[in-house]
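Quick illustration, no need to memorize.
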Amino acid sequence: MAPKRPRQQSAAACPCGLAETYENCCGRFHRGAAAPTAEALMRSRYSAFVKCDEPYLLRTWHPRTRPARLDLDPGMRWTGLEILATTDGSAFHSTGTVTFRASFRGGSLLERSRFERVDGAWVYLDGEFPEQ
């Protein structure tokens, strides 16, 4: 019997839906790089929900609206992200909005999120849930 060869790790696609690996896309933000736009932060936060990365979610939440802790459901299965609209949120803005649909097993969530810069970094302020 031949010895088992170690399995090569395939580069996992990023949960946010962009055509990059997780490591090169949202993973770099989860490791500490600053998101350059409100949309990039929103995508990285979606990926953090997929990966149950509570510290990242709290770190990227506006200090005024940040909860003390999150109760993430490890059984929740997020299945896709669709960006529907963005307003401002670039390197030239201090605020921005991102409207998106996040799908999960059994349904979807429609949210219009507001983002602000705090000490130069984009953070999630709050969101509203328009009628679907």
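The longest helix spans residues 38-50.
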